[in-house]
Amino acid sequence: MELVVEGRYYRHGELRQGCIGIEEGRIVALDRILKGEMHIDLGSRIILPGSIDPHVHFRDPGMTEKEDFLSGSTAALYAGVTTVLDMPNTKPPVKDREGLMDKKRVIRGRSFVDYGLFAALTPGCDIPSMAAEVAGFKLFMGSTTGKILVDDDREIARLLPQVFNAGKVVSVHAEDESMMGSNVERDPMDHLRNRPLEGELNAIRRLSPFRGQDVNICHVSSAQSMEMAHSLGFSTEVTAHHLFLHAGMVLGPRGKVNPPLREKKAQEDLLDAFMDGKADMIGSDHAPHTLTDKEQEFHSCPSGIPGVGTTVPMLMAMVKRGHLSLGELVRMACENPAKRFGLKKGVIEVGYDADLVSFDGRRMREVDAKRLPGKSGWTPFQGREALFADTIILGGELQLRKGELCGEPVGRDVFHA
User: Fold this and answer.
1) Which of 129, 358, 375, 414 could share a disulfide with 97, CB 3.0–4.6 Å?
2) Which residues touch 63 (CB under 8 Å, ≥6 apart)?
3) Which secondary-structure segment (H or E) carries 246?
4) What angle do helix axes 264-275 and 223-231 make, rounded to 10 degrees?
5) Buried b vs exposed e over 41-56: b needs ≥16 C-beta within 10 Å?
């Protein structure tokens, strides 16, 4: 065997002491004792499958002053995320096969983690020509970064069946464009009033003709939204900022995001639903902007919060403190995203990709923007407790060792014809 990793690994709902045998990037054996050409003993550290973030904006191409695939994937790696699915609202947006293949060429060889790309649904787009090359298709029912809005129900009814027929998932930014206000905004509460919760609920309601189909509701911002989505047979994705932040906090422009942060009660209810295991996936909606961007007046500053480098570490701290079960974290961060998007990842099993992440429970520390990889240089989670990854193996390649980068940008595109 090329590589054997020894330690306490998570499998079938429990931690087991033993060895993981790896060849050609896949797990080939699991046993108490294995021998290989290279042996990594992780001692008492917890070994988990690599996390999969189904929602990032790495801003590449076109906005690389905010982030690019090299910097964004580095942030993901240190957090224990070994696969990211990148959204299409770059410059230019990915809305046809030519743009998709151009973006693939731009980022090839510049990622420390595996990745897949989304294409945007736009009127008249050629879905079959892109389906084999994408993780899924993104539907923007409300305006946000980029001009790729589809808010007409007739057009939605024409596009979505084509996606389902191609065997792909539609991930939805669910905000009803017709219910958004345009009043001048001075703080997150004003932003919330312009983008009310009923707009999110109504967008999900409008998708009811597709009950039970492959629809994923992104960044659900309330327990009501989650309940409605599940009642229609849709999967849900939650973010750390909607779980832990609310519009009443003193965040200024750094708290501007779409969908908006909700009132404290809505945030607490969403967190309770999350703790009860009602969410399907955890997605960071990593949407970085520079400090200069975020120091503008609230009304004119862009929406978005960075999160790929902090989400899993903060949740691991919750596990360490006994506030979240390890099984729930693995289910939402690893197993379910892999199943949802058809990846041979997310579990420690023979035949699956050898993406492994270890955490050393003795290395808890506070989130500090100065120590986070990535270009944004800020985080709304400054000072929160976190447990960052210690050692990472991606496809059998050692990428991070004792918290230090030791690999190369060998991340691969996991969706290609």
Assistant:
1) 129
2) 90, 91
3) none
4) 50
5) ebeebbbbbbbbbbbb
User: Distance (Å, rounded) from C-alpha 5 to C-alpha 3?
Assistant: 7
Q: Give the tokens for residue 125.
A: 């787009």
Residue carrying the six token digits 């492959």: 214
Query: How long is the chain?
Result: 417
36 within 8 A of 1, measured Cβ to Cβ:
yes
CB-count burial class (<10 Å; 0-12, 13-18, 19+) for 231: exposed
Q: Residue 216: which of 176, 170, 162 has the closest Cα?
A: 170
Residues 6+ apart with CB under 8 A from 16: 8, 9, 10
Q: What is the mean pLDDT of residues 24-52?
A: 97
Distance CA 362, CA 380 (A): 24
Summarize pLDDT for 214-264 with one digit per residue, the tens.
999 999 999 999 999 999 999 999 999 999 999 999 999 999 999 999 999
Answer whether 115's CB lies under 8 Å from 73's CB: yes
Q: What share of the chain is helix, strand, coil (3-state, %, to 5)?
A: 30, 25, 45
Domains defined for the chain, CATH in brackets: 3-47+347-405 (2.30.40.10), 51-340 (3.20.20.140)
Would you name the residues annotated as active-site residues?
285
Residue where the block lists tokens 């595996």: 114
Gap between the Cα atoms of 366 and 268, Å rounded: 22
pLDDT in tens, 285-330: 999 999 999 999 999 999 999 999 999 999 999 999 999 999 999 9
Q: CA-based angle 199:380:376, to the nearest 5?
A: 100
Task: Please check whether residue 357 is in contact with residue 49, taking contact to mean a CB–CB distance below 8 angstroms.
Answer: yes
Answer whether 76's CB lies under 8 Å from 39's CB: no
What's the rounded Cα separation, in Å, for the pair 54 and 68? 17
